[in-house]
Amino acid sequence: MTTILHKANTRGHANHGWLNSFHTFSFAGYYDSNRLQFGALRVLNDDTVAAGMGFGRHPHENMEIVSIPLSGDLEHQDSTGRHEIIKQGDVQIMSAGRGIFHSEKNANHDRQVKFLQIWVMPNEINITPRYEQKYFPIVERKNRFQIVVAPDDKNAVWINQNAWFSLGNLDKSIVLSYQLHNNENGVYAFIIKGSVVINGIELLERDGLALTEITDLEIEAKEEAEVLLIEIPMNK
Q: How far is it, in rounded angstroms, from Cα 161 to Cα 137?
């Protein structure tokens, strides 16, 4: 087993007033040659957007972009004609493919929106841009892992990559296991809330852990916790 621990306080940080953003990997004005990516996982941003504010229309291409709201409501518009509100419990994916424009803003004028935005490099390039959004009942991830992004699961949102995203809400002292879909993949674990021990390594809120050369994980909650697992190809 090979691991890389990213403590929460070592992430890149940019506070623009309307946007407070923490970057696990190099992004925008934050650059660290040791944190360019993890396999096909390129970006993991932990964003808070002020009431009524947001990102104006901007382009993307050949990237799989996943948004996971943690609180509040996120308004999305793009050049495919989609205009959606993404809420806690929803997971959104946008395959930028050969090119797409979109905007994102806080749909509320009285509270912040907090969300994770994650970029994954695609399996195939220059595909037709596509958008998908689904609601995943939070009760269905109670003391178990719920697959929310996958290339091969009709109950998840589809991704143009051999990658799987799973969310789990764990009570204190619960122990869960996770079996990799492909033993050549790596897993990036991000602790949304609480504290856990993964394969003997203690992680606190907003810590991240990259693991390779493994076939499975054991996750023990030291207190009530929310965990995101991203299983990702390493040959990117």
A: 24
